[in-house]
Amino acid sequence: MDVRRRSVTKTLTAGEPLKSQNQHSSSLKASDALPLPLYLTNGLFFTMFFSVMYFLLHRWREKIRNSVPLHVVTLSELAALVLLVASVIYLLGFFGIGFVQSLIRPSPDSWDILEDDNAILEEDSRCEPCAAAIDCSLPPNLKIVRMVPQKHKSAFADVVEEQKQSASATIIDEDEEIINAVVAGTTPSYSLESKLGDCLKAAAIRREALQRITGKSLDGLPLDGFDYESILGQCCEMPVGYVQIPVGIAGPLLLNETEYSVPMATTEGCLVASTNRGCKAIYASGGATSVLLRDGMTRAPVVRFGSAKRAAELKFFLEDPMNFETLALVFNKSSRFGRLQGIKCAIAGKNLYMRFTCSTGDAMGMNMVSKGVQNVLDFLQNDFPDMDVMGISGNYCSDKKPAAVNWIEGRGKSVVCEAIIKEEVVKKVLKTNVAALVELNMLKNLAGSAVAGALGGFNAHASNIVSAVYIATGQDPAQNIESSHCITMMEAVNDGKDLHISVTMPSIEVGTVGGGTQLASQSACLNLLGVKGASKESPGSNSRLLASIVAGSVLAGELSLMSALAAGQLVKSHMKFNRSSKDVSKLSS
């Protein structure tokens, strides 16, 4: 029977203080059942254990020397085995019992007990579970108080409240001291994580110090609800919160006979809806097909020589097929997945730019290729001691900048994606016609971009889709620049009835491991696409699939936006869905 469910009244002996009775009941120990004092019992079993072990080891050594089977035991050996087992059981089960008791049972002196000669303890008769009925939360420095008489309840409540306030004041005082040190500049803001050992607390203190220094409020920037440990030393330094970006889903995108729900993180109204409409049109027409053309990340260091002739000698050496195997061996030792594919050189006077291209598995690969390049540079110093390395990156790569070399040679994953949209789908879903789409694409994406002198921008809004998918899946948003290089082509097929649309993207830079891909939210979006982490069966296949999904999503976005433009729907839809109804003047005030 559960005693906690009975209503029992226990009257303590008159004249005997409650504290003394509690001390008497708590003085009983499990070790009192032993015939000898605890330290003597422990010593006896310790001696027995080592003595028996020595005896058995000595006997077994003699048996091995005399070729006697170990399983043949004498009576003395059998007795020794029994004693060994007994001593092991005791030492495992009972040794240190006094120490364990000191940990799990505080001494009676640690209890703060209000005494009363006629104290009466009535057990709780409530039917709720104990966990639901009792609030066990106490401040860290609050002593445990129990068996409080009715007449002392108000005094007890005052003590509890006072100690709670004392605990809060202590914590606030400690934080205040650190905040003042950060504001004064005596404690560097970047060192808070290492000094405090608590990333959340470090962010909170840094945030408060920033507000005091600038006099500006950060109330709208969330702080709680984020794992700051996950970004320490790899994703973001000196955090003070995190920005919330909504994630919408476009799809299903039917690509290579597989359906994908595409996550898009954006604050631009109509973007997800428009891409979703493009996915619907592609799905209704039988899906899209993508082909991976190239897969290689690049890094291009710049080196200087005393003369252009000397720079040209190194260029010829690097581009000689006879030397490639040696250079690849040096390059490849930096990683299990990084494999050198080729080296392309360019000279500017006595400066040489060497563009290394390598495969990088499922990682985006910038760090991987940089390590391999450094190995090659160190190796080349032996044969070209007059080579002066000016920088591991000489912008011939080219990273996070629009560059013709990426548009022509490619960087990361080069993908082409196409689909044939049926005439009835163009009319019913896209609300336009094939001839209008083909003409608009020629005038806008081809001729218009040429007039503007566009570099890789022969499209309607590829960067919109690329950026949204990149942010949702933890890619580097800055690499949207070269990743959005895209040429959109449209052509009437099947006697002019259907529309053939394609996007060619030569430099999609994505990875499914490393960087922001390991954060919880971004990892969930990768998991939604089925490309989370590295592929064990086929290294690199996850990142290649992600690049194909990006291209397929761009195809859907291009198709929908061009249709809206051709039908004159763009302004109308943006006025309806992409404008806030809130009074901006009131928000700013």
TrEMBL record:
EC number: 1.1.1.34
Cellular compartments annotated: Endoplasmic reticulum membrane
TM spans (from-to): 36-57, 78-100
GO terms under cellular component: endoplasmic reticulum membrane; peroxisomal membrane
GO biological process: coenzyme A metabolic process; response to jasmonic acid; saponin biosynthetic process; sterol biosynthetic process; triterpenoid biosynthetic process
Pathway: Metabolic intermediate biosynthesis; (R)-mevalonate biosynthesis; (R)-mevalonate from acetyl-CoA: step 3/3
Bilayer disposition of the protein: Multi-pass membrane protein
Catalytic activity: (R)-mevalonate + 2 NADP(+) + CoA = (3S)-3-hydroxy-3-methylglutaryl-CoA + 2 NADPH + 2 H(+)
Cited PROSITE patterns: HMG_COA_REDUCTASE_1, HMG_COA_REDUCTASE_2, HMG_COA_REDUCTASE_3, HMG_COA_REDUCTASE_4
Keywords, sorted A to Z: Endoplasmic reticulum, Glycoprotein, Isoprene biosynthesis, Membrane, NADP, Oxidoreductase, Transmembrane, Transmembrane helix
Gene3D superfamilies, per the entry: 3-hydroxy-3-methylglutaryl-coenzyme A Reductase, Chain A, domain 2, HMGR, N-terminal domain, Hydroxymethylglutaryl-CoA reductase, class I/II, NAD/NADP-binding domain
Molecular function in Gene Ontology: hydroxymethylglutaryl-CoA reductase (NADPH) activity
CDD domains to which the protein is assigned, alphabetical: HMG-CoA_reductase_classI (cd00643)
Family indicated by similarity: Belongs to the HMG-CoA reductase family.
Name by which UniProt lists this protein: 3-hydroxy-3-methylglutaryl coenzyme A reductase
Organism of derivation: Panax quinquefolius
Organism phylogeny: Eukaryota, Viridiplantae, Streptophyta, Embryophyta, Tracheophyta
Gene responsible for this protein: HMGR
